[in-house]
Design goal:
Length: 164
């Protein structure tokens, strides 16, 4: 909004300078001898020129204000889009953390799976399991537990069955 205020202030200053210049020129012209025009006619010409200049400045100011409005609208839309993108990223990260925690809790309930030894990596709902499994059945249960958690899109089971 500061840029908008500065733009308005700049236009107002330009308009005032233009009006003063036109008035000065008009008054100077009044002092010159021109037998064809009376002082009143010269003054009418100056007033008409000043009015025309003021109208042109007004149009320029309106055009500039419209451009400022468009720029503010565009910046607002970009900020909103960026905020939405950041919010989505935070929500996805929070979902991934919740998925990882739920899978870890499921492993802790299983007597053969170790929630401490199995690394659960989750990104955008895709889960990767890395670590040891005591046997093939436990390895398969780990996949089943992970797939049962809400929000899981896929499970890549990279658990290695330890030799007994």
């Amino acid at each position: 909004m500061t840029k908008q205020f500065n733009a308005q202030k700049s236009l107002a200053i330009k308009a005032a300078l233009l009006a003063c210049s036109m008035t000065f020129l008009g008054l100077t012209a009044c002092g010159q001898k021109d037998d064809a025009k009376t002082v009143g006619q010269k003054l009418d010409t100056v007033v008409a020129n000043t009015s025309q200049s003021a109208a042109e400045v007004k149009i320029q100011a309106e055009t500039s204000m419209a451009k400022v409005g468009d720029a503010v609208k565009d910046a607002t839309q970009k900020a909103e889009a960026s905020g939405n993108k950041t919010a989505d990223a935070i929500a996805t990260s929070a979902d991934d953390i919740a998925i990882t925690a739920s899978i870890g809790a499921g492993f802790a309930k299983d007597s053969e799976l170790s929630a401490i030894k199995i690394d659960v990596d989750t990104k955008n709902g895709n889960v990767v399991l890395i670590g040891p499994a005591p046997n093939a059945a436990a390895r398969d249960r780990a996949t089943t537990i992970a797939k049962s958690v809400k929000g899981v899109g896929s499970v890549s089971n990279k658990l290695v069955v330890k030799a007994s």
